Amino acid sequence: MQHEMGAPLPPQDPSALTPGTGRPPMPPAPPTAQGGHPAPHPHAPQPPHAPHHPQQPHHAPRPPGAAAPYSSPPAPGWGAPGIPGHPGPSVPPPHDVTGHVPLPPVAVPAPPPAEPGTGAATLAVLLIGPAGAGKTTVARHWAARRRVPTAHISLDDVREWVCSGFADPQSGWNEHSEAQYRLARRTCGFAARNFLANGISCILDDAVFPDRPVVGLGGWKRHVGPGLLPVVLLPGLEIVLERNAERSGNRRLSDEEVASIHGRMAGWYGSGLPIIDNSTYDVETTARVLDEVLARSLASPPSW
Predict the structure, then answer these.
(1) What is the mean pLDDT of residues 76-92?
(2) Which of 278, 275, 265 is closest to 302 using CA atoms?
(3) Which of 1, 87, 222, 276, CA to CA, is 20 to 30 A from 133?
(4) d(Cα 173, Cα 171) in Å, to the nearest integer?
(5) pLDDT: is 169 or 73 the higher one?
(6) Which residues form the domain of 290?
(7) Are the C-beta atoms of 130 and 262 separated by less than 8 Å?
(8) Does some domain include residue 118?
(9) Does residue 73 sit within a domain?
């Protein structure tokens, strides 16, 4: 009997199997009609006409007890969960456990101190001074001796991140060196805000001139925030020249340039900013005086 294409064969009668093979006997070849196609059996019942569904092919129902038709497993990467290569359901990324706090969209003001003095306060300090004033040395020492996490951000160190195409002011002040200074200040300001947002104090050092408030002190206030505490470190000219002579590389300036910078820094007198003359102080004494100055600035913030 002919069966509809795609339908499983009915169960075989064991008595109809060929002995020794377990297979049914081969039926004789049916007569063929014109064109080489098998002619239907004259007495075979014709199956009813099934409606045509292009998107959902018709499958005959499976008789009771018949095995399910075999289907090949999906290709790697496209199968069901549990099959090697399957990406599985989308899993949300794990919670950030690094302690990072997203940076807020506005500048972060420094919070008030937790106790009298500056040892436990979260601060943002800008140490100003000419070349040879000891800004970097004092800032690094002050940050290392505090009881709370504190970072030191050196403008010169950030400027020197530029390894190829570094615009050295010793070769002449031009638009390239000016642009790299501006870029370094913005980078330092962003780093300071990020530290403050994560509860870490910071101290920055820069040779900010009083006669350039927009790109100097005003720029730092925009980059870091209104909680920034500026302090000027200004020893005598002889001390500055002596310390500059001990430098090497592109951080050592000519005596004429050092004297010019020192003269411009004198404009901070009368500005209202606290000034420390560390001509006779060592690094530890200067750091202790800086603590005292900052404590007064927290109690009565300077107007700048």
Answers:
(1) 46
(2) 275
(3) 222
(4) 7
(5) 169
(6) 124-298
(7) yes
(8) no
(9) no
